[in-house]
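Journal club prep — side note

Before the paper discussion, L.F. wants everyone to see what a predicted structure for a comparable chain looks like in token form. Sequence:
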Amino acid sequence: MKRFLPLALLALISIAAKAQQLPLYTQYMFNPYMINPAMVGYSGRTEINAFYRNQWTGIENSPKTLQFDLQMPLNPKMALGVNVANDQTILLNQTSVLVTYGYRVALATDHTLGFGLSAGVFTNKVNFNGLPPSDATDPALTSAKLNNSAVDGQFGVHYSYKNFTLGAAAINLFERKALSPKSFQDIKLSQLKNDIIFATYRFEVIPDVFAIRPNVAYRLNEGQPNYYEASAIFSYKTIIDVGGGYRQSFGPSAMVRVNFGNIQAGFAYDFPSPTAQVSTGGSQEIQLKWRFGKVEKKTSAQTSPAPVNTISEETPPQQEKSKQPSEEKQQQEPVQNESRPTVKEETPKQEPTVQNNQPVVEQKVEEKQPPVVEEKRPAVVEPKQEPVVEKKQEPVVEEKQPETPGDYYLIINTFEDRANAEKFYNEVIKQGYKAEMRETKPGVTPHYFYIHLPAYKSKEISVDKVLELQKKLGFKDAWYKKID
């Protein structure tokens, strides 16, 4: 009988050590760093968490867990953390100290991939003070070191899209034994048989007022049955959270959480397992959180949207430009062409008709249209004076030519939306060009914003000049226009 007791204790300790390689956490969704190192600093603020769990309150010397962590985001991509956990099971006291480095990568707008690696030391301590002296000296127990340590490590990964998060973690990267003949156990990679996979999503039923958050997890345990757990949290504003869940082979649970600004306090109760052959009593959890410091925005909100939004916002302006400025080109550019070549070409055509009354330029009339002049002299001399008067209205174009330098602008882009115009303007400034933004007069429809280069602002601008500047400056869509 005396020999049976130590062996039974050894078996019990060994079973407890396997079962408690990762303590049970019912409120892990409020601090996912507890089960996945990739979630370190996920809130974007520096925070401190404290956790206490008393499992199976109906059993004397039941397992108890204490956990403490500090999470500190360095920037939107990187974060550091320290996680200290102590798990007391019967005669075995296990403590782990882990330092974590987390890194996030923005895949696209609102899409983030995160990694986390924890490394540290795991310590075992066996307490035989409660045993009779004869049992405490049994060779079956004394062959094992009462205090031994081992290298400990975890690795995790998570994917986030808006309010959805999916994560997976390897809990034990290195092998560790509850009882070992060595003070510091040999470093050996484990077979990664202790893992956890979880997913969570927050539904904003009424934005900023009421939300529902379902959570599911699946845990793989070496030497023990795997199990799943699921829960749902109902949140009212940022004041209170109420929810419940179910853990396979353990039973249902209930949770309540209250927020006091930067401080949060939560309580969870796991009901006794319906499959237990003895009365174990329920399990109780208390969790405290304190957040402080500035907010480090998530990577997908800073790094990813910038280039993606640039593409999505720059594309519509080009479409606007292809539609509206093209119409203006049809209205404006022909006018400009008439102001130069057409005046030179039409003046010779007008002069023959004018020469009917002014013989000073009859040589040109005779050279170009002699037959027409002879036919029109007898009968249509006077009637054609009226078209001459109408054609002499073309000096309106000549009135446009004496324009002061600066009337014509080299337009490099056109927008209907002011925000898009300002964004393109800033890009041109970054390229080293001196640019200006103008808009049409109030009340004029359609209303446009023009980005132009003031260095090329003169009545000397022509179609050929614009083509030359398009090649020289690289603004393929450049054109010119008079802006009042």
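L.F.'s comment for the group: Residues 1-20, 300-403 have pLDDT under 50 and may be disordered. Keep this in mind when we get to the figures.
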